[in-house]
Structures are given as C-alpha cells and as structure tokens.
Amino acid sequence: MRSVTAVADDIDTGLFGPHSVTWRVHLEPVLYVGGLRALILQALHPWVMLGTYQNSALFDPAKAFARFVRTAEFVGIRTFGTTSEVEAAAGRVRRIHAKLRGHDPATGRAFRLDDPQGLLWVHCGEIDSYVDVAVRAGILNDADADRYIAESARAAEVVGAADAPRSRAEMKAYFDEIRPRLRLTDEAITGTTNLMTARMPAPVAVKLTQPPIAALGFASMPRWARRMYGSPGLPTTDLSTTLALKALRATLTRIPGPPEPPHMQRARRLMVEAGTLPS
Fold first, then answer.
1. Is 15 a domain residue?
2. What's the pLDDT tens digit per position in 2-46?
3. Which residues are within 8 A (CB) of 184 and not within 5 positions of it... i.e. 6 or more apart?
4. Does some domain include residue 198?
5. In the prediction, which pLDDT does 61 show?
6. Could you give a GO molecular-function term held by this entry (predicted)?
7. Which domain holds residue 71?
8. Does residue 27 sit within a domain?
C-alpha cells in the first residue's frame, strides 16, 4: 500500500490525504447519520445479517456499544491513519473475518464472513450512505460525490472487497442488481430495533441522541429500502429529510463537539498546511 497524497515527502498520509474528498467529508460530524444509515441498510442482506447475528457482539446489549465504538475507530483509522496504521487495522479485520462462519438454518449451508461479495455489500452500504448524506447536507456536489466513491475503492480493497463501484451511476447499478436478493429478516428487525432505540449500555448523551439520529438515517435511505422495512417511502419524506440534514449540519458547525481523535486532528492540520481547509 502506498501513500497517495503527501504534504511533504516524509509525511505518510495513508490511503487518502489532504487533497482528497474523503478527508473533507469524514471531518464532518453530520456523517454520523450516514454511519447509522449504513447499518440499517446493510441489515437487508439476509446472509450478511445472519452471519453478523451469529458472530457479532452487536446483538449482545452488554457489548453492543463497545463493538460500535470499535467499528467507528476502524473507519477513522482507515480514513486518516498512516499506511502502517491502516495495514495493521485492516489486517486485524481480515484475520477476524477469515475465522468466522455463518450457518443458514433454512438450507443447512455454511458460509464465510469474508466472502468477497458479502464484503462488497457492506462496503457499498457504507459508502452509499456516507455519500448520500454528504450530498444532501450540502457537503458535496455531484462531481465530488463521484470522486468520493472512486476514492473509497481503496478502502474496499484493504478489507478484501473487490470491484467496488467508482461512481454514483455504478453504485446505483450495483443496488439495482442486488435488490432481488435482499429481504427483511428477523435478525434485521432485531438489530435495527436495538439501534433505533439505543438498547445498550452507553453514555447518557448517546442514549438520548442516537434514536432521533438513527431515525434520520432511516429516513435518508432509498425509498425501496424504507419500503422493505414497511415504511411508505414517500417523496415528501425525501424532501423533509434533506432539509433536516442541511439544518443538522449547520447546527453542528456552530456548537463545540467532543475532542477529536489524534488522527483527525492531524488530518485537519495537514489540510490547513495544504491549503485545502481554512485555518
């Protein structure tokens, strides 16, 4: 893995760098909505969700929040970390996935959690969610949205997913192709209910704010996905959700948030030095 962008020859900026769209997008607090949207959307793949249910702490109320935090930390390292940090974090994820198996009780078939097609689904659910929230919140225009998706293919490769979409058109084609294989399962209902009601030991601030943010993430999903969950999926919901995302982003830029992790602070400094972020 080679550093793509550097401010100076001796600075390692990992997969992306201060001139990337990815760094600009992932410094935005409103992207938390995209993270929750991704989990709800990803749950519609029956085998991915079954494998998660059978192997993950996400369904154990006592462990779910810690597992969610570790996932967020991995995304942060993958986005902002140095080459060695990304390689180490991705290597741990690949080793864990390689050991895990799911079992479909309906067919008796066992399946690997590191199946490339399953990993591709998880990647596309995540990136589609981030880019959709970023566009609707006013962070990205259409051209930068395509660039963001193209950059994200690097993130797919480090965990073993191949042939990731590189534009919004390719992303749409991927979802059009896979939709007949998606369905709402009992595991998806359980996981989404836990997520949207914050049924887990967590700081009070999280338990108070996660349900409305998760509801906004749900409302931002494609109409077909909302309908699979039994929601009407109306165009009026799309309009009100877009307005809510713009308002939330504007609000979050005006109020101080929690201290950023060191890798995000480093990214901000490098972007200021590169002239891609106001000082």
1. no
2. 444 445 556 899 999 999 999 999 999 999 999 999 999 999 999
3. 44, 228, 229, 230
4. yes
5. 64
6. oxidoreductase activity
7. 21-256
8. yes
Burial class (CB in 10 A: 0-12, 13-18, 19+), 22: buried
Residue 4 located in a structural domain: no
User: pLDDT by residue (tens digit) across 213-250?
Assistant: 999 999 999 999 999 999 988 888 899 999 999 999 99
Contacts for 179 with CB less than 8 Å, ≥ 6 apart: 224
Whether 245 contacts 8, CB under 8 Å: no
- Rounded to 5, what percent of the chain is helix, strand, coil? 65, 5, 30
Dist CA 127 CA 230 (whole Å): 24
Is residue 186 within 8 Å of residue 143, measured between CB atoms?
Answer: no
pLDDT in tens, 36-89: 999 999 999 998 998 888 887 656 666 667 777 888 899 999 999 999 999 999
Domain count, the chain: 1
How many residues would you count in the chain? Answer: 279
In the chain, DSSP finds a helix count (H) and a strand count (E) of 13, 2
Burial 249-262 (b: 16+ CB within 10 A, else e): beebeeeeeeeeee
